[in-house]
Amino acid sequence: MRADGAEVSWDAAKSKWLVRITSGEEVIRRHCDAPKGADENSLRAAVQKTLADEGYEADPARILINEK
Q: What is the pTM of this model?
């Protein structure tokens, strides 16, 4: 299936990166174990892996990285 988009942001409460996959009105949230100081390419790869694990694919241009 094709996801509408994906976003990754740091979840300070869990000390892990949180990936949000959106497909229509559905939002899937998954944590990944990338280190806090991971670079953008590593985070994009982690998001792509999470998408694949959930049975989705997405345009890489629609992956947002929120490093706040």
A: 0.90
